[in-house]
Every structure is written in structure tokens, then in C-alpha cells.
């Protein structure tokens, strides 16, 4: 016999699905608005009609008309029925530059959906460099604001004696640096330190080198293509080795941690930055857990499995990360601090 359905639960579930459809389609429109400068024009102009916004941005009014409707329905914009004008609240204007990267990241990641589905059957994976380039750009834009707000202000001060070393002049390796956002923040804040970023993705290293030159930091920061288990180290070792949101998706996190132990100065420190995650599955049943688990399937777990790795994934627990560092030979490991989005760990020999 067919089960008796609870109409309220059924309709609630359907309503959530409709909301997801709108969110998925609207993500592309957010990216379009960012790419075409529509948000910037709204912030500068104040309340506008679709025709006025199209004229200011050199776009076609017929497209802009529905774009504005979508953005108002998404509650990104406000609408005044009396005047027929749309406006961007100042709070939203302030937050959007920090949020658009997430939309770009996921739009890039979901282009691999068919290939990821195949790997559900085979157990294989997709290397980072095989993804759409929007993923790389979006990842930098997604993480950079949090790094700018926290690395110097709270994360490094939570580590034992690290800030004093950096201020005096330390040797630093930023492993898995991507486009170099974290590396350049370190270089900017600590001019006496010598900092190198390593990544195995050549296109990302090329982009990082361009960013260093544009920032005027090429004289004291450099970038090299190198794997997390094979990068070179000075004879005296690095005073600080950092892993920003990357160890969990490596195909050999123990090997990367072991190389960090080998490359570290005797009194050096490893700073491990990882996404926020709970110790139990149900602790991740929240909006952030939804975001990170999606990223794990589409990007992080897949990257590790592509190299026959352990697939720690984006929601790796504190205990799993501690086991990785202990296996690699570290004797001290602790969660030094945290934010709503990240856990920051300190590992020492």
C-alpha cells in the first residue's frame, strides 16, 4: 500500500526545492551582475529603473529588466513600486565583493558535474587543474576576504611565538598557495621575512607571480611550481610552514605533513587552516555544512581520489587531522583559534 503522505511535509519539501532552483539560477545572474558592473552602477547611482541602469552600463534593457526582478526576488535589491526603481542597500553593497567569489567558485565547480557523477561509479576523481578556470578565480575571491580579516589580526597571534619571529625576519613556506592571496598577505605584513609559495598547478603559480609584481612584493616573495611533498627547503629549515584550506584535499596529506616536518626548523611551527566542521555528521547539518559538503564532493574529495588519496574531504574532523600530523611525526597539535568559517591548528615537533 502506498504510504499516507503528510501534506505539510510534502509541500515544505517542494517549497525548499523551488527555492534551490531559484538559488541555482540566480547564482549565474549574480556572476553576470558582477562581471558587467551592474552592482557597481547601482551602488553609485542610487535608485534606478531598468532603462536607467542599462544606459549607465551599456547593456540591453530587456535583459536588465528581468535581472533586476530576479535580484529583488532574491532580496539582494530593494524595489519601490511607486517609482518602479530598484536600489542596492549599502549593507549589501559592502558585503557583495566578499560573497561573489563563492558564486563564481560553485559555478566553476558544477561544470564538472557529469564527470564527477562518473567517478561515483568508478571511485576515481578529478584533479584540481582539470576544472573550469572559474573555480580557481572563485576560490581566491572566496577565501581572500577571510584571510585579509584574520591571518594577521587573530590567527598568527594565536600561535606560540610566531609573530615575533615574523617581525624579526623569518623564513616561511606557504604550501598549496594557489593564486597566492595568503602568501601576499604574509609578505605585506612582515617585510623582514622571506616568503615562498608552492603549488603544483602551474597556471595558479603564474597568476600568483603576476599578483606579486602588481603589489610590488616580488623582491621578497616568490612562487614556485612544486608538490606538497617535494618542495625544497633552506638548510636551516622554515620557521613557519602554512597550509591554507588545502591539506584536506591532497592525495597524500601524510606525505605533505611529513615533508613539512623535514623542512621545518627545530623550533618551527606549522599553521594548518581548515574549514569549520563538526566531530559528528549531524553537527554539519546547517547552511555552512551544506556549502562545505557540496564543495567536498565536487572538488576536494574528488581531487584526493584522483591521486588514490585518503579523501579526508572538506569536513575532516579535528581527530582525523590530528592523526595525519601525528603519523607524520609531529608531537604537538592543537586547535589554536577559530572563526565561523575556519579552524586554525598549530603543529610543532
Characteristics of this structure?
alpha/beta; Rossmann fold; seven-stranded mixed β-sheet; two-stranded antiparallel sheet; 13 helices; 9 strands
List the helices and strands and how they pair.
Elements: H1 7-35, H2 38-45, H3 50-57, H4 61-73, E1 78-80, E2 85-87, H5 90-110, H6 113-122, H7 133-155, H8 162-168, E3 171-175, H9 181-189, E4 194-199, H10 202-214, E5 221-225, E6 238-244, H11 253-263, E7 264-275, H12 287-306, H13 318-327, E8 332-338, E9 342-348
Parallel strand pairs: 3-4, 3-6, 4-5, 6-7
Antiparallel strand pairs: 1-2, 7-9, 8-9
Mind explaining what this structure looks like?
The mean pLDDT is 97. The chain folds into 2 domains: 20-88, Arc Repressor Mutant, subunit A; 109-348, Rossmann fold (3-Layer(aba) Sandwich), CATH 3.40.50. The protein has helices at 7-35, 38-45, 50-57, 61-73, 90-110, 113-122, 133-155, 162-168, 181-189, 202-214, 253-263, 287-306, 318-327; strands at residues 78-80, 85-87, 171-175, 194-199, 221-225, 238-244, 264-275, 332-338, 342-348. It is α/β, with parallel strands linked by helices. The strands form 2 sheets. The chain has a 7-stranded mixed beta sheet with strand order 5-4-3-6-7-9-8, with helices on both faces. It has a two-stranded antiparallel ribbon with strand order 1-2. Helix 7 (133-155) runs parallel beside helix 9 (181-189). It is globular and about 70 Å long. The longest helix has 29 residues, at 7-35.
